[in-house]
From TrEMBL, chains A, B:
<keyword id="KW-0808">Transferase</keyword>
<protein>
    <recommendedName>
        <fullName>glutathione gamma-glutamylcysteinyltransferase</fullName>
        <ecNumber>2.3.2.15</ecNumber>
    </recommendedName>
</protein>
<keyword id="KW-0104">Cadmium</keyword>
<dbReference type="Pfam" id="PF05023">
    <property type="entry name" value="Phytochelatin"/>
</dbReference>
<dbReference type="InterPro" id="IPR007719">
    <property type="entry name" value="PCS_N"/>
</dbReference>
<dbReference type="GO" id="GO:0010038">
    <property type="term" value="P:response to metal ion"/>
</dbReference>
<dbReference type="InterPro" id="IPR040409">
    <property type="entry name" value="PCS-like"/>
</dbReference>
<dbReference type="GO" id="GO:0016756">
    <property type="term" value="F:glutathione gamma-glutamylcysteinyltransferase activity"/>
</dbReference>
<dbReference type="InterPro" id="IPR038765">
    <property type="entry name" value="Papain-like_cys_pep_sf"/>
</dbReference>
<dbReference type="GO" id="GO:0046872">
    <property type="term" value="F:metal ion binding"/>
</dbReference>
<dbReference type="InterPro" id="IPR038156">
    <property type="entry name" value="PCS_N_sf"/>
</dbReference>
<keyword id="KW-0479">Metal-binding</keyword>
<keyword id="KW-0012">Acyltransferase</keyword>
<dbReference type="GO" id="GO:0046938">
    <property type="term" value="P:phytochelatin biosynthetic process"/>
</dbReference>
<feature type="domain" description="Peptidase C83">
    <location>
        <begin position="1"/>
        <end position="221"/>
    </location>
</feature>
Length: 236, 236
């Protein structure tokens, strides 16, 4: 068998825990029982592989747009309307994304352009406690899904800046499930939230700005209610 | 918003139960606790959308090949070796598959060609009891995954012949989880196994032959052990 090229990578564990390992399955079961995998079902239903090595931002966004059941209002193939990465051709030319990837700000722009309402938090303008509240709000419902923009180095993974959706949360162990869209490289995996925060609290050299996290919503969700829940969850 | 074309379909329920509904989540939790979702974790990690309206056979197979960690031995994009539908260009020309879909026999041929060991069962040469034993063997391990070839009509769904992997089993309720690769149309859903069997026990007009199910394996799995388990599971 030809061996040129790379066949996946071994997931550095620790710090990550493979979703399909015995330990990963146990975390998953406990998190379901504790109600912090509610968003998982819709999100995993649209889990996809980034179709180009630099399309992590586009793949993460198209997963979330499909999970939120946002109608792109135009055809994909045959009679079907459906978000494919190739349709996210707003804010930044696709050829440029293919060559160099996409910045945090441009992904936010794209989400707006595709018809989502978007909350975006750069790590220098947010805190780990806010991040946890947002994770909790999104994993206990299926109205919103977080997209993390982080640096892979903190997880001892090869590569640098990367986008992936967060698929669930284990509150007691304070671990989040990363649904890595670079599935040809690493499988889905659990990571400690403090380390994930540290990985988001890094600077993208291409823009000189901090990374962070993005929460797209459907306009059909009552937006104020979401904020109300976030606010009241912060009360003693 | 432009409304030409179709934005998904409403899943006819019953007979199917949406994976992300409350009832679907409950079935899922019970099935995990009973050990018949073991294969789910790897398979769902590679869940994908068929990239063309007639590529259900190719998408189902590429999901399973990736879940089995079979190395295609050639590059996909960048340095990465990874199964994409466009690489399943054996047994039947891709242009023909794009126009007309693919037959049961050609999917079996393709799985062999891609480097898998394959068991294939046409419904007229198998029984529902054998099918249940195979479902049980595959959902309690992560060494094999079933691909069903069935007729959508039995589920009151639009369309005709369709391929999709089976993602899990609820033994007590005798229901199987279909990870429908036509995700632009229907979400993943649970169906009663007797109805699934009936849907597989139909004739493909293009070939005049019965549909059925396909089980690809990795050569790295000790094949005889699998058969031994199947055999002993049939003993009183």
């Amino acid at each position: 068998m030809a061996m040129a090229g790379l066949y996946r990578r071994v997931l550095p564990s620790p710090p990550a825990i493979d979703f399909a390992s015995n330990e990963g399955k146990q975390l998953f079961l406990e998190a379901i029982q504790n109600g912090t995998m509610e968003g998982f079902f819709k999100l995993i239903s649209y889990f996809q592989t980034q179709s180009e090595p630099a399309y992590c931002g586009l793949a993460s966004l198209s997963m979330v747009l499909n999970a939120l059941a946002i109608d792109p209002g135009r055809k994909w193939k045959g009679p079907w309307r459906w978000f494919d990465e190739s349709m996210l051709d707003c804010c930044e030319p696709l050829e440029k994304v293919k060559a160099k990837g996409i910045s945090f700000g441009k992904v936010v722009c794209l989400a707006h352009c595709a018809g989502a309402k978007v909350e975006a938090f750069r790590s220098n303008l947010s805190t780990i406690d806010d991040f946890r509240k947002h994770i909790m709000a999104c994993t206990t419902s299926d109205d919103c899904h977080l997209i993390s923009s982080n640096h892979r180095g903190l997880f001892k993974q090869t590569g640098s800046g990367h986008f992936s959706p967060i698929g669930g949360y284990h509150a007691e162990k304070d671990m989040a499930l990363i649904l890595d869209v670079a599935r040809f490289k690493y499988p889905p995996h659990w990571v400690p939230v403090p380390l994930l925060w540290e990985a988001m609290n890094t600077i993208d050299e291409a823009t000189g700005l901090h990374r962070g996290y993005i929460i797209p919503h459907s306009y059909s969700v009552i937006y104020l209610d979401f904020h109300y829940k976030l606010l009241t969850s912060a009360l003693p």
